[in-house]
């Protein structure tokens, strides 16, 4: 049985499609696109670490604004659009590209464009059992080859929005959204590494760390072959 938080997210996705995306919905209900995206994606709260979710009072408020029956948000979605096939699991594919290169000027809270299904066995073997905070973005550029290529899907754990350990992270910088390998030194300096050796690494000093904002950690990739 789905939790009320999962039902709220599915209902918000339905409304986003109906009103032409999260930006269109935000104008109708007088909420920011960033706020709606946090609810839909279950982004981790920076203070508590728990997934953000819409409150019941807010659900009632939106129902009133849009002329929906009271309690509409609380009713589980029964359409097959949001029900995965047996043996599969759904992830949100975000409308954003993370540049393995010079960066993209994307919103910090991108819109969800669709739900995609992957084998649940593959997901648990390659990602683990904590799948609720995972979203998918698309890589762009060649600076992280051979680890992944432009167009590949990156499975990002948005709950890890801080430096945890050496690994590949998605982060915002002054030049846009990037995906790079991060490595921290004992001195506190942070090395930003491109796996493609033709690109130079960058080192941020301890007092420069606030110039980037970590959005999540890449925990798995799925190669997309074009024919």
Automatic annotation (TrEMBL):
Membrane-traversing stretches: none
SUPFAM superfamilies reported in the protein's UniProt record: LexA/Signal peptidase
- List, in alphabetical order, the GO biological process terms annotated in this UniProt record: proteolysis
Alphabetically ordered keywords of this record: DNA-binding, Hydrolase, Protease, Transcription, Transcription regulation
Which CDD domains does the annotation name? S24_LexA-like (cd06529)
| GO MF annotations, alphabetized | DNA binding; serine-type endopeptidase activity
Tell me the InterPro entries matching this sequence: LexA-like (IPR039418), LexA/Signal_pep-like_sf (IPR036286), Pept_S26A_signal_pept_1_Ser-AS (IPR019756), Peptidase_S24_S26A/B/C (IPR015927)
GO terms under cellular component: membrane
Pfam families associated with the record: Peptidase_S24
The record's listing under PANTHER family reads: FELS-1 PROPHAGE TRANSCRIPTIONAL REGULATOR (PTHR40661:SF3), PTHR40661
What name does the UniProt record give this protein?
Peptidase S24/S26A/S26B/S26C domain-containing protein
